[in-house]
């Protein structure tokens, strides 16, 4: 688990090479590469993106271009020989990076996935380990969780955080119920060692290394906040009245913020607008 370059990064290293989940910010690409090289000098073979945001995909080009795929006969490579590492993501990630013909794309071509999948999941076998990419939209419409089955580690992307309230990116297809569904799916994968502690490691999109108990706490918090806001909407409360009611008050000391990229007000507004739209 690498931290400090944007979103958290997961590195799996073995005899076949290196697999990287998310790449961090573009400006930190060289730092990420240097950190990977302290773990392994094997070729970087595969990059997996958990979703589209630039703090998780910004250094795709920097990381992928120094790598090399296993070649045209590699399983899942569709006969394509690449001079760089494969970049794998859900098809909706590519759609968010792409643009209609004749319009400028929001992201440079070198950062785009070279391979996508659709449906509920995709399986990869690398470094003698089965790896599941579990599609579970919620934070955006292209989120995947990456489950390393032998290592018993899950990279959750921004579906699970320990540093802030859930970031619900409605502009990119996110929704509060989707995040709750994703957290429940994550709990289906995790297995505690003893009394909900230890066992499966969960690498969040941002924040500290976690286990099932942390995910349960986060899921319960979001479910309670959702129900409180839903109840206020049913009583015809306006957004201002919902904010004034403080539906997150007892959790603000743990997850709240009044400044920065994702504040408590922004979170409450995103939940309100998502639930109000669903009601209408």
Features of the shown structure:
single chain, alpha/beta, five-stranded mixed beta sheet, globular
| Number of DSSP E strands | 10
Share in β-strands: 15-25%
The major sheet is characterized as: 5 strands, mixed
Structural class: alpha/beta
Distance between the termini: 42 Å
Task: Note the overall shape.
Answer: globular
Helix content: 25-40%
Count of alpha/pi helices: 9
Q: Which runs of at least 5 residues are low in confidence (pLDDT < 50)? A: none
Task: Encode the helix/strand succession as letters.
Answer: EEHEHHEHEEEEEHEHHHH
Strand order of the largest sheet: 1-2-3-4-5
What's the alpha carbon Rg, rounded to whole Å? Answer: 19 Å
Mean pLDDT: 94
Detailed description of the structure:
33% of the residues lie in helices and 18% in strands. The chain has nine helices and ten strands. A hairpin with a 2-residue loop joins strand 6 (121-126) and strand 7 (129-135). Helix 5 packs antiparallel against helix 6 and helix 6 (212-234) packs across helix 9 (264-279). The model has no long low-confidence stretch (mean pLDDT 94).
Secondary structure elements and pairings:
Layout: E1 10-14, E2 17-21, H1 29-39, E3 44-48, H2 54-57, H3 60-65, E4 86-90, H4 91-97, E5 115-117, E6 121-126, E7 129-135, E8 144-148, E9 153-157, H5 176-189, E10 201-204, H6 212-234, H7 239-245, H8 252-255, H9 264-279
Parallel strand pairs: 2-3, 3-4, 4-5, 9-10
Antiparallel strand pairs: 1-2, 6-7, 7-8, 8-9
Helix pairs in contact: 5-6, 6-9
